[in-house]
Amino acid sequence: MKRKKVVTHSKKNVSRTSISSLNSHKFYFTRLLLKHARILKLKERRSVQHNLVKQAKERPDHIAVKFNESTLTFAELYEQASAVKDQLLEMELPSRIAVQPTNQLNSVIIMHAIVLAHIEMVLVNTHLTESEVKRQLDSIGVDVIITDNSYTSLSCIMPETLFKGMAERSAVTTYNPEDIMSIMFTSGTTGVQKAVPHTFLNHVASAERCKISFPFDRDSKWLLALPLYHISGLSVLVRSMMDGFTIVLFDKFDAEAINQSIAEDAITHISLVPQTLEWLLDAGLERHQLEGLLIGGAKLDDRTLEECLRRDLPVYTSFGMTETASQFITASPADMVNHPNSVGPVTDDIKVAAPLNGAGEILVRGDNVMKGYLYPEGANDTAFSGDYFMTGDVGHIKNGHLYVLDRRKDLIISGGENIYPSEIEQLILSIPDISACSVVGIPDAKWGEVPALVYESESDLDDKITKTLEEIAKYKRPVLYKRIKHLHRTSNSKVSRHRVKEWLLDEIQ
Question: Which key words tag this protein in UniProt (predicted)?
Answer without folding.
Answer: ATP-binding, Ligase, Menaquinone biosynthesis, Nucleotide-binding
